[in-house]
Amino acid sequence: MLTVKENQFYLNGEPYQILSGAIHYFRVVPEYWEDRLRKLKAMGLNTVETYIPWNVHEPHKGEFYFDGLADLEGFIQKAQELGLHVIARPAPYICAEWEFGGLPAWLLKEHDLELRCAEPKFLNHLKEYYEVLLPKLVPYLQSNGGPIIAVQIENEYGAYGNDQEYLQYNKQLLEEYGIDVLLFTSDGPDMIEHGSLPDVVTTLNFGSRPQQAFEMLEQFKPNSPKMCTEFWIGWFDYWGGKHHTREAKDANDVFQEMLDQNVSINFYMFHGGTNFGFMNGANHYEKYTPTITSYDYDALLTEWGEPTEKYWFAKASLEKKSGVVRETPDSMPKKAYGEVALNERVSLFDIKDKIAQPVSNKTPLSMEKLDQNYGYTLYSTLVNDQGTFELDHTPIKDRAFIYVNGVYQMTVSQNDEERIVNVHFPDEENRLEILVENMGRVNYGKHLKDRKGIIDNLWLNNQYWFDWEMHSFPLEDVDLPFRVQQDMRYPMFYKGCIEVDEVADTFVDLEGWTKGNVFVNGFNLGRYWQTEGPQQRLYVPGPLLREGSNEIMVLELEGNRTSTLSFVDTPYLG
Asked: Which residues form the Beta-galactosidase galactose-binding domain (predicted)?
């Protein structure tokens, strides 16, 4: 068992240095878990750490999923087969630049529910989730012969609140459901006071200056074991920003300093993976910044699993310390499949009633009120007035296309400095349509309670407008009717097939397209946004393809100069 004596971790009675790397099973196709874990072990690490996102496992209240990308037990079993220990971080909040920080969107349907505190409704939802989740972990605890040596309580709570009752309740739930291995919290060095518990190990998250960080820990909780639970060796990217990198030697110098002092370390990230589908999160400080599809993170392994210069630096440091040299598995093959023509197309407006049941209400309903987690929502109402009117689009989250009588007028965003726009209504009776995109719920900080869609009624021409119709497009099922072709408005779905003779990793080049999503055999690879960057190509793991014919579909929101896609063998992060 992993225990603590004075300021040192012990494993089965012997002093132990945890050398760990973060891999999020839900960001990596299951067929590649073994490859990534083997590369982690080959570098010289002894432990893998993973978050457990609530919204992946309970996307709708009372509906639980633990297969495919959500096969938590399969991931733990694979780690155990390879002789690795596991650190589990079930949160319930994970941050991780993941949609809503891992919290399920349906929590936001209840306006009187408070997040991440000892509010009875929230605690009840958490308990009902843990009743299902935690028993799945118990067989894999070290106390039961499994690989899980430690479990985290909440996550960076000192950066959010000060509710010690809530933290104690989290601890109580873990213990109540049989989690009897070492428990810990993790926070930035300057946030540990409110994020820690007196009888639980306190660990730190940082990317540099370890000596100063651990001096702060020593002042707060003397004789604590030293562990950096998140050693930030890179950073995430957001749409409209640049690709973040960190010089390999600089990261390794900090790693070497901690290694020499026998500090326990978890690389965040060892392997970042991908924000498939609509699962990217967002940050909101001065402005709202949604995270890109790639979660490459400038990590030790790239998004597609190749060792980086940072990997080889760290491997050399670990080999020098241990005297053990391990062979690193080969990289996965990559192929350029060439161009595919997307010859079929259909407008979202042509098929809206075929793929979504309309909902009517006096006022617009948020996505959460419509029981919709992700994707797009179309709002429509009649404006029985004529003229050019001011519209306050503040309640629209996050980005929307506005149409009058079937004609596109403008695009608005919550990042617009001017929230009042002029909309012209030419007739005595006009149809106003607003298609809203959820670009990712905020995953950190004071804007965490981030509802999407139109979250309040719209103020138009100095009055509220009532009687709305709404269509939800979560796009969880992309078997769409392409035979209808009347409306030429965007968004537009495009479809084609590509023949594959040998399955391998590849990348979709979106040159000539603007903004939207790509689907391969029904699997949503994620978002692209060519005009913003930095990501210009989407990673396609080989297991998503099959030998023979593969269906490719694109949802283009704004406009495209081509109807072909290129599958190439190299990525591009600008």
From this structure: 491-550
- Active-site residue (options: 97, 154, 156, 303): 156
| Token representation of residue 161 | 């609140």
Contact 311, 317 (CB under 8 A): no
DSSP string, 418-433: --EEEEEE-SSSEEEE
Domains located in the chain, CATH noted: 2-322 (3.20.20.80), 338-346+478-568 (2.60.120.260), 363-466 (2.60.120.260)
Kind plus residue range of the DSSP H or E element containing 77: helix 72-81
Q: How far apart are CA 367 and CA 119, in angstroms?
A: 23
d(CA 186, CA 220): 14
Question: Mind listing the pLDDT tens digit for each residue in 42-90?
Answer: 999 999 999 999 999 999 999 999 999 999 999 999 999 999 999 999 9
Q: Which amino acid does the sequence have at 564? A: T
Catalytic annotation present for 119:
no
State how far the Cα of 492 lies from the Cα of 469, in Å rounded to an integer: 21
**Burial of 353: CB neighbours in 10 Å, binned 0-12, 13-18, 19+:** exposed
230 is known as an active-site residue: yes
Q: Which of 58, 97, 99, 230 is catalytic?
A: 230
- pLDDT by residue (tens digit) across 437-482? 999 999 999 999 999 999 999 999 999 999 999 999 999 987 899 9
C-alpha separations of 228 from 8, 50, 203, 209 in Å: 13, 15, 6, 11
* DSSP summary character for residue 43: H
The CA distance from 293 to 98, in Å, is: 10
106 touches 55 (CB < 8 A): no
Nearest in space to 442 (alpha carbons), one of 93, 193, 40? 93
